[in-house]
């Protein structure tokens, strides 16, 4: 998740290096925006070291380039302002924009979390309370200040929530509103290897990258994900995914069947072998002068089988084509009783096996939507967004 942490000029800023550390340890990409007064309390060097990103504090960079607040806002999945001083709260609530952080806030489309921090009399002041209520009405999430000892020496409400509590607040809030919360998603990915003998196999060039990207994104969107993965060297698999490693088409069939009945959504992106050797030699086949002839038999069509068995499930297939792409994909959609199919063509540069990008068309019985070439992480988001529209 991409997180912008906006730090304003309050003494509670001393806690923010630990907050950055917690967020990065959870795998989030954090970019810090400091207001000018915040630099009096915490150093950019510390925050840059912990976040592994350059800290931003003004519209202009040191080499006279522009820090684009619109791009920053669009990059963010979450904006967190901590600590938020009374001054910043007032500006946010009343449309005043005099620094990069506020310009980014006013450009934001992502959820915004605000952790106020100030002395107890300031926190209790009617105008602060009014500004916090305004920000709530705008859809911002307020992380309440807590009771404790304050920088003034007084004890009362106004202390910024502890970093652990801020992270928990954000995670809990986001998880409750995730689009796939409570859904079980079955995904198949990667190739299958069909053994010829103990050392040789029939396979294909699939790496599983696309299916893994979909699985990772589905977890982020709150789903319980079961990934049935053929032989793949890919390591970037979210630890919250239920991973089922398989080798052959029959292995993948059995694993998919076992999970399908209790699934809400099934996305079959694997490149499953259509044929397997009829006889699998128990010993290594020795090379001879004569040609070797292998008799192949059809594997079970996993997608067609699930299409016959489906009840309430949304079933999505993949079609990798080299000619008559749209016609072939639509035929597969109808023939296998699918709710949707993802078409990509080996003719499109940057699409297909082994790449970090893909170019797809999402097809349903009612319509088709084509997307430009994108990183597979972004393609996964597009696919899931289209699937969510199909929910019954």
General description of the model:
This protein is 33% helix and 23% strand. It is built from 13 helices and 21 strands. The strands form 6 sheets. The protein has an 8-stranded mixed sheet, sandwiched between helices. Strand 9 and strand 10 (201-202) form a beta hairpin. The chain is elongated, with a radius of gyration of 26 Å.
List the helices and strands and how they pair.
Layout lengths: L1 E6 L8 H10 L3 E6 L9 H8 L17 H7 L2 E7 L1 H9 L5 H7 L5 E5 L3 H5 L1 H12 L3 E2 L3 E4 L5 E5 L3 H14 L7 E6 L4 E2 L5 E2 L6 H12 L3 E6 L12 E4 L3 H12 L4 E4 L6 E3 L18 E3 L3 H8 L4 E8 L3 H11 L4 E6 L11 E2 L2 E3 L4 E3 L3 E2 H13 L4
Parallel strand pairs: 1-2, 1-3, 3-4, 4-5, 8-11, 8-13, 11-12, 13-16, 16-17
Antiparallel strand pairs: 6-7, 9-10, 14-15, 17-19, 18-21, 19-20
């Amino acid at each position: 998740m991409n997180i912008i942490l906006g730090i304003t000029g309050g003494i509670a800023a001393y806690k923010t290096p630990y907050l950055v550390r917690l967020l990065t340890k959870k795998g989030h990409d954090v970019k810090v925006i400091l207001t000018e007064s915040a630099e009096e309390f915490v150093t950019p060097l510390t925050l840059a070291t912990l976040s592994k990103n350059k800290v931003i504090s003004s519209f202009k960079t040191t080499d006279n380039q522009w820090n684009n607040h619109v791009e920053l806002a669009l990059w963010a999945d979450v904006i967190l302002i901590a600590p938020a001083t009374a001054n910043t709260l007032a500006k946010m609530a009343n449309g005043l924009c005099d620094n990069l952080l506020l310009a980014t806030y006013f450009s934001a489309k992502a959820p915004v979390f605000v952790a106020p921090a100030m002395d107890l009399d300031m926190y209790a002041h009617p105008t602060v309370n009014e500004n916090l209520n305004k920000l709530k009405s705008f859809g911002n999430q307020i992380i309440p200040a807590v009771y404790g000892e304050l920088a003034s020496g007084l004890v009362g409400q106004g202390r910024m929530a502890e970093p652990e509590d801020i992270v928990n607040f954000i995670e809990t809030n986001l998880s409750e509103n995730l689009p796939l919360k409570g859904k079980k998603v079955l995904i198949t990915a990667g190739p299958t290897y069909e053994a010829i003998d103990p050392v040789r196999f029939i396979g294909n060039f699939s790496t599983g990258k696309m299916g893994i990207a979909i699985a990772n994104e589905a977890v982020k969107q709150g789903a319980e994900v079961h990934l049935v993965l053929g032989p793949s060297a890919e390591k970037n698999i979210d630890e919250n995914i239920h991973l089922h490693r398989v080798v052959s088409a029959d292995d993948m069939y059995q694993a998919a069947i076992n999970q399908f009945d209790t699934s809400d959504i099934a996305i079959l992106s694997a490149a499953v072998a259509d044929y397997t050797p009829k006889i699998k030699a128990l010993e290594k086949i020795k090379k001879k002068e004569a040609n070797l002839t292998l008799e192949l038999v059809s594997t079970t069509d996993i997608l067609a089988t699930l299409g016959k068995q489906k009840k309430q499930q949304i079933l999505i297939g993949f079609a990798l084509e080299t000619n008559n792409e749209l016609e072939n994909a639509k035929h597969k959609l109808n023939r296998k009783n699918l709710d949707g199919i993802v078409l990509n063509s080996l003719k499109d540069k940057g699409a297909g096996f082994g790449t970090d990008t893909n170019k797809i068309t999402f097809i349903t019985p009612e319509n088709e939507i084509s997307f430009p070439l994108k990183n597979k992480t972004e393609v996964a988001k597009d696919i899931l967004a289209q699937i969510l529209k199909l929910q019954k």
